[in-house]
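User: Okay, second chain of the day. Same drill as before: sequence in, structure tokens out.
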Amino acid sequence: MSARLTVALAAWMVWGLAQAQDAGASLLKDTQAWLDQAVASARPAGAAPLRLVVTVGALDSRLTLAPCAQVEPYLPPGMRLWGKARLGLRCTDGKARWNVFLPIQVQAFGPAWVVRGDVPVGKMLEAGDAVQAEVDWAQDNHTVLADMEMWLGQTATR
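Assistant: Same drill. Structure tokens below.
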């Protein structure tokens, strides 16, 4: 499923839960635009083109949110828009103000060098020790080795 379609479905779901029938089109457009911009700006500078996959979770089904004419999406402080994250949604124009968090997962697939097999600790890495493959750059906090010069001649530590 494409990132745009997934984001559109998430925005539609929030719209339904918030019962904002008159602002549904605006909410869908605003949330999609916000997520598109946020995901694009989270991409590392100078990185190769990445294939982005955004998976949107669901709000707690027990929630009953008051009607809201304006829902504002935001990224909570300290949260990064890579891997598993939360997207904040707050009502800024309604009878009752509310704030909820929508679980999301952003995967960014692109080329990187990965070790071909077991490499003993302490071995100096050579060209034959790694192969280029498509990996999820957002899977963990380690540096992605997209350029052979970044790892060639380094010593294996794990």
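The chain is about 20% helix and 30% strand.

User: Thanks, on to the next one.
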